[in-house]
## 1
Amino acid sequence: MSDVLGGFAVVLQPENLLYCLIGVVIGMLIGVLPGLGPAATIAVLLPLTFGLEPVTAIIMLAGIFYGAQYGGTITSVLLKLPGEASSVVTVFDGHALARQGRAGTALGIAAIGSFIGGTASIVALSVVAPFVAGFALGFGPPEYTMLALLGILLVATISQGGRVKALVAAVVGLLLATVGRDGFTGAERFTFENLALADGIDFVPVAMGLFGLGEILHSLEERHRALREPAPIADVWPSRADLRQAGGAIGRGSVLGFALGVLPGGGAVLSSMAAYALEKRRSKHPERFGNGAIEGVAAPETANNAAATSSFIPLLSLGIPANATMAVIFGALLIQGVAPGPQLVTEEPELFWGVVNSMYVGNVLLLIMSIPLVGLFVRILRVRPAVLAPITVLITLIGAYTVNNSVFDIGLVIAFGALGYLMRKAGFDPGPLVLAFVLGSLLESSLRRSLLIFDGDPTGFLTRPISGTLLVFLLFVALLPALQRLRPRRTRPENATAGTR
Amino acid sequence: MSVPNPVADAETGPETASGPEPEADAKAGIVTNLAVAAVVTALGAAALAGALALGAGRPAQPGPGAWPAILGGALVLLGIVLALRARATADAERFGRTALPVLAALASMAVFVAVVGVIGFEIPAALLAFVWLRFLGRESWLVSVAVSLGLVVALYLLFVAALDVTIPHMF
Amino acid sequence: MTSRLRALTATVLALALTGCGGNLGDDGAADGADFPDRALTLLVGQDAGGSTDLIARALADQVKNDLGRPVTVQNRPGANGAVAAKELAAAKPDGHTMIVFPGTLAYITPLAVTPAEAVDITGYDVVTGISQDDFVLVANPGTGFRTVTDIDRAITYGTTGVGTGSQLTQALLFAQAGIKATAVPFDGGAPTLTAVLGGQVDVASVQLGEAQAQIKAGKVTPIVTFAQKRPSYLPDTPTAVEAGYTVPVQQSRAIAVPKGTPPQIVDRLRTAFQKAFAGQAYRDFNTQRLLTPNEVDGPTLLGQWTGSLQTYRALVDQYDINLAGTA
């Protein structure tokens, strides 16, 4: 525990505090641009840190990390452009709130939720990290298969509209995730001998096309009748009532985020989905979700931030970075002569806890800064839609390019924009497609690895304690709505299921 | 759909603002619904065929096509379910002439992506912005010209001058 | 509004006139006189954080000083680097796009995939060799395996992907030792090692630098290394050859550019990389990651790699090994 406090002492040195602030600001500004996610942003700005002390450098990089994540939340809410997979769920209610003139409320609750989630997670990390160290190791391919399947099921819960159409969208998302070279055999799948597809399709063009661009295209059609007036900007900060309403969601999101964040690979995304689905399930009025429920923003934003913090645990216990961003950060450390590994915590406690605590301080800075900045960003919505649309489109197109520096990706984002428009017209919610796409390769590769380990025997899933438990839980979640539906009430088909569920 | 309550809004997603919704958002007929089901089925069948061509392997050694084959099969089934429910489906919008601006918008973006590698992003971006502002957005000539030029300059300063992004550029 | 706009336009025009040129034309730079005239890209066919990525970042950091332009590392993971290599082959041969070419892609992957999909190193210009990296077979301590002869049952082994050195070393070893073993491919070294730590697979062959922290902490047991001689860092672990198996497999890395890059530009790049190799920071990095420098010129490296390909092809034929996942 004294190491934890020592870490705070490190962070609170004025110089480190300053670089943390700089990192958060840069991260937020760049995170607002679609395409450049936290990992890319850090990689781009890495050289800036080479002249700094290792601790200072890493604090600044960590600042960029959550600054960029919050920047992605801002675009998710304002323009329906999620920059990161873990903020896809935020789009649903965040953007609906923005449409009602409550973007400030959404962004405010996201900042508060992130802060509380991060705080809870860091306290838990300091206290229980040694005990949950083995937790992540118990998760092998069979367990990840079950988690990913659970995620796909949650997708159906999360989505708007009819269940069959949500399933169609989810399966299409899973299919899109198979495009590219197969990691098990090297075979090219659905690439049509196009080199640009060999690497698979990136998340950014899919999400920005289906959500952001599809939305803009759809609104062009409405413009025929009447220009939609931008909603009046209401109270910038969440009211006491909002906070009360979101309180439970923030608490549960913190727990879910911490637990799932411990799992390297996919933890943050799954936690945001699970937190959202849980709130929707618990709610007496699930129909509010997707139409501006404040819990629908609070839950995933809290969870993904809690997960970002607890993803330090695998690193702490195993010396293995949990995600691409962590990998880049610790690659930077290595270049600076610090070797990350299982002994990092004991050999360099100041560094380790300095970094962890800097995430906490970063959250505080983020919360303080969001007060003036949210008001600023929200003004974007005062711009007339006719003017905002081409600006958004061009930033999206160029942003898509920046992901892989590929013109092909610009074409992809346009194609997915067209698909998003058509889906909307045909009554499909693009949400399940994007979320299933995110989980697709985790699901397939875990499933195939499991079958290899089990020598083709699917009962292997049942004989392992964790995967068996997950499987039972999964069946429960899957069958619950079917059982509920047995109650004789099915007057309005398809479009009304969201309301009657 | 003309009743602006949350449940009705849910039909087309949160993005549809409440308010008067004239006939352009009218429900699609059974033909559209069947066509959607057919597209889903066809997509599934194509995926299934492509996957089987890749080789499905066996349970102990799944091939590259095993998983896509499962997904393709699932899509075919879902497409059939959609077709069976076509008459009772009421969440699709009618396709019609209201889609013309959308086509124009897609065309403008297609031109952008086609020429950006050859002449850089500046001119196509300015043209795209102008078309969207003047013709799709019905802004005045002055606003259209000023905003499209200003936007390109801002994009240049941001992406090229400040961030050093490698997007093809002329200047 | 308009006056501010005018000011901005003037700024941009000024920028354009002062040599802030576009990046469209490929004319003029062909002779290499003004090379490099913009930021360079160093492609990495593996995820950020892995060995190859770290080497790329360590080098990029040094090389940019000599070239006077930023060198951006870009990760294009997929198929042991084939995706990135194919992308490089399609890039303009002007020296602004380079790759950290993993040797296993040149001399092991071709054994696993169809000839049409294989990447041929002679289709690139090699700037310089970088370093070699040894593989080590590690076991989960729970298995009780300490030597190859301890392995007395059918096992599962993790590989870092199809057509990687990790796969070949183990396929050769288990074929020669007569052990029934099932390969489970993961995406790179970190997930593979995690699977061994968690007991998801029994053993795995990973690069020494990736496993060193875990070995030191006693979380995995080293069984054999596939090095030419015992690494100074693991004096008590025999090499595969000492244990009686013919598995001379190493990872080697080189910097390559698209075929047809002007020789002056290749030379310019080689000079920049040699300066980077000489730097203390980079040498410390090599020591820390247990890498053996192999900073040879292009033709020497090509000789090494084509030799390896022939050796491995003969071994794979001899033991009738199928490296592709489908049986």
## 2
Amino acid sequence: MISFCSVSKSFSNGGEWAVQDVSLEIQTGETLVLLGSSGSGKTTLLRLVNRLIKPTSGKILLDGTDVATQNPVQLRRRIGYVFQGIGLFPHYSVAANIEIVPRLLDWPKEKRQKRACELMELVGLPPAEYADRYPDELSGGQQQRVGVARALATDPEYLLMDEPFGALDAITRDSLQQELISLKQRLRKTIVFVTHDIGEALRLGDRIAVMHRGRLEQIGSQDELLNHPKTEFVRSLFEKSSMPNHP
Amino acid sequence: MIEWFQFVATRLPELWVRTGEHILLTGTSTLIAIAIGIPLGLAASRLPRLQGIITGGVGIVQTIPSLAMLAMLLALLNKIGTTPAIIALVLYALLPIVRNALAGLTGVPAPIKEAADGIGMTRNQRLWLVELPLATPVIITGIQTAAVVGVGIATLSAFIGAGGLGQFINRGIALSNHQLILLGAVPAALLALAVDASITSVQWGLRRRRSARRGNRLDGLIRTLALSAPLFILATGCLAVWKPDLLSAGTTSSGDNNAPVIRIGSKNFTEQLILGEIMAQLIEQNTEMQVVRKFDLGGTMICHSALRNGEIDLYAEYTGTALTTVLKREVISNPNEAYRIVSEAYAKQFDLTWLSPFGFNNTYAITLRETDAQRWGIKSISELKSRASELRAGWTSEFSERPDGYPGLREHYGFKFATVRDLDTALMYEALVQEEVDVICAFATDGRIAAYHLQPLEDDLQFFPPYFAAPIISAATLDKHPELEKILDLVAGKISSETMQRLNSQVDRDKRSPAEVAREFLQSNILPSIQ
């Protein structure tokens, strides 16, 4: 379980709030989507979880322990992270990219290789064909599959995904979303998924947290958000999305 | 062209050794610069505050002219040879290495660095696993620049007795011998191309990693060869220095390794090279000693400090030069008095002994083209007075500064020339012939005076001090080998000004080697008297 307790973050000392007084809980095994436009503070929330940034005030608890008291390197190795813009290492092959965290954890070579093969099968990249390829030899969708496989390498309980499908074309995005849904059912991870795409949020999220200008507008299931919006912003957001022909 | 190749063939054994020295100078200094430069670049990329200081510092070094740098290091370390040369080369190599390391490291895209942090790499892991590998091509390009430029700068190391291909270039300039200049310059250029190609091949090898990973064994082998290309060049250098006789086909004397060694120095002009050879051959013929020639040192003070530091044991100096340049005393026009004063002062101040003079007086001679001298009817320096304000002078750098040079001359004769240009000794004669200048400070015994139809003017107001040449030797060496005095005395008083001018001209005009000219002189003038 991940809990945000009155978390605020400002990047300019005492200036504007990137995140202001956010409290929410992500239950074990659920997929929570952080939905918002750019600048809404959703990515900031995600980066606070694995201490890529520190909160200005408030606490983030991971299974009841304040992340601020944990070694950031150890913490990050427990949490899978899929990056916006992918973030694969261009000088490593697909297999080496997937094996990187096990390598940092000093897993024996055979165990690493076996795990990489499993994961490549899982994300639909046959190892025989793809293990020795390099990121720039893959399509965007294939690269993002590798990104997901890399995040899953050590079988972490938590998975943070920062707009992972944002840069992909619609067809690829659709099939990756499909696969994530099936992965989710098979693996039972706690997933925090950041997106600005309402359709994606509705499709993937067990619950959705709507962020606007650094504040949490509402958190709830699809049904709650669509039928019982708490704020004007949430109402207009989902009204627009249900209009025909809206992208 | 064919002639030149034949000439190269005769010099192959020495070319082999000099190339080896050149490779080791460049290689060692580049390796040291890598060891210093990459951490500096890293520090600069990590600590923005230090960045200005580091890049500024290595940048300033680059603005120091190479010869000035060598001279400064010489003064600082009080040492000639490879140490100051390598230090200078390292300092020059730092700029491209540091700059490129910095550019390479800061050029790693931010999302990739963030990904490294995000998956839980420590700072060191991020550096070694991500940043350095991604910066490598840029860093290697910096090393490539440093190494190629280093091959060029290393040619100047010969000025301070560090050897290398520059030695041929220096000698070639000193002797106006184009074949000799090319013997140094062409291999140096080829070496620079080879170094460049070898590092390009490393880059290629690194890029081939992917295909080699998948590919067959041959691919892997080719890649390994490509990656080790610079090592082949370094190995060649080591081999040449370790086995200098490899190409001499057993022609050089095998030389008893236990024989005492005597190191003879010389300055970098024809007469000094001939005198050096005469002394060297005399000692070789009359003792069991092994003679090491450290010729072509870049000036009086370099020879003097080398002798004082025991890096050479012996070289030929001139009384006038010793008096004014080394001892910084007033000019003395009586030759015997001058010799007495310098030998006493050298014994007392430096523990150096002046042996008997060779016999000739190589004083400065203010010199015109013969055609001008005849047209104007000028035979002595004072007759120049009325024309001096229209004439362009070309002096050696030493002459421009020395109290017994232009500053004193101006005062003594009471006139000055329209313009003065500082020129290298050899170029000064060429410049007079090519009418780039009208008057030069020739050396009285210089072979080029006759060869180029020049007219030395009489020093009618007796300004120039006597420059009688004599061997000077460290007292310690003379104590150990007292027989050297008797041996060198064999040529005492035997080389008149006319003889010296003839010997010089055999080298300058007839393009014969100083060694050959010295051998012929000894055979026809000195050896008969021994037997």
## 3
Amino acid sequence: MAEKPTFLPAGDRAVVVELGDAIKPEINALVRNLMLAIENRKVPGLVDMVPTYRSLLVQYEPLKISYEHLTATVEEVARGLDHIKVESPKVVLIPMLYGGEYGPDLEFVAKHNELTPDEVVKLHSGTDYLVYMMGFAPGFPYLGGLSKKLVTPRLQTPRVRIPAGSVGIAEAQTGVYPVASPGGWRLIGRTPLQLFDPSRNPPALVRAGDYIRFVPLVSEQEYLELAQKIQKGEYTVVTEVAE
Amino acid sequence: MNEEVFEVLEPGLLTTVQDRGRYGYQRFGVSVSGAMDVFSLRAANILAGNDQNSACLEMTAAGPRLRFLRETLIAVTGGDLGFTLDGEQLPRWCSIRVQKDSVLASEGVQDGFRAYLALAGGIEVPILMGSRSTYLKSGIGGFQGRALKAGDRLSVLPLEPGRELRERRLPEDLEPVHYGHHHDLRVILGPQDSAFTGEAIATLFDAKYSVSATSDRVGYRLEGPVLKHKRGPDIISDGSPLGAIQIPGDGLPIILLADRGSTGGYTKIATVISSDVGRVAQAAPGDTVAFKKVSIEDAHAVLREEESLLRSLDREAAAASAGSISIVVDGEDYEVTDEQGKPLFEHLTPGAPHSTETRQAKVTVGGRTQEYNVQIRRGF
């Protein structure tokens, strides 16, 4: 890795490791790879890590590892990052039904951007979205890669309850609500997949650094059949290796 | 088999099941949650003869009224919520044997703000993502994902074989903490102290802030002088460490606590050291706080003192149960674990209580592994 990471103290049990100062896939890939490489290294005293857009929060147990030793280890791992092989990110296929009662704002998004609803579906499902990080709520992915042609403002008045699995657009972002919650995103569709389930390990279908691809379902019947399969545990989530 | 151990007659202001928190899942957006005052939780568990991470009740300001459904051993630590047992004042910071049909009640907060009730065996609720802690906002973990309500009946785990209900108290030279209404909090600057004016940094250490009534398990909101940013309050979202003092656009500090979101997009001027986070949890609305700058090394020294205090408490508590081992290297106590972090003593053949032997051991200190002759003491 070309640049040395910057260490920002975050109390006596954590340190922020910054790898850049912009929201860019290349920087985010470094964050992901650094986290995996540190994990592979099995550093004693490592408690937890939180990968974000351009930095990694490393939480440690000071009784097991000193700040100096921890940062020196992270620096060493970062230096060797080009030569360390980590698992490739995956593309997680998310089947979803666009429009109708599942995506009540699809028409609005189309009109706002002077497109037909079909064109919106094509554009939205035609991209692999990078999961930059997760946060805000359990299982909520911050996605990058929405087409500039689909940028749409939020609702003036947020909805009181949005069903789990709803897929929406807010300004230049698209995202999936992992659990039912209030919200102001423009809803264009819904997936029957459960993106977050606290009793599953890992609890989320995707992790930071993975990609999401939305795959259009053709009918409500297909959606309901799939939902039933998922509920019975007869559905395996489809993934591909990225690139 | 688990046995129901108490019934909730009145839930109190906010009573939840908590352990030391849910680690390993922040990367999925899951909050750590767990006890707001971890020291008090650990002490309560030690006094009740439990593993230090066992689940306890965290009780806030006005405690619950509970009726015990069988004989057990309890320990109450943390703030003084005016607890009584069958109408008599309940001694805190020690374990107490309670009988079936006894009633624990709270007359309301006398000192501090949060108390911990440990029960022998530890509260039995399902482990979710590695923890029994309650995360209220998403209804995850704890007892049905929520605060306790009247009529709830909770169970404890069975005692480990060989463990008995045995009453314990603090060593005589230790006094229960008196929290008062002003709290000095030690902080380490950063991660984003460079986003603030010199004047803002100076103000942080000169000013007194008062705790807002809107404070909760997510964060403590403070009222007082405004802290100015050089160029606005926003950053590219990053991870939120425990105790971080976040300064949003209005310039007023929010100390991020157990139920904080795993990430956030506001600048964090400084971070309260982990040994003082529990002190924040004991501050009541209207109390005042002041910040004092320390170094990471200072904070780690405080942490080691706190650990040795808990260890001496634990040693005392463990004296009765033969088989417990401590390893001393160069006069310093170390917990020896295998690569998975499991205490090593579980894999050794139990020796005679109160015996000492010398063995060769590989000990990793600060990442360097060295061979030592270690003393293994049993039953101290």
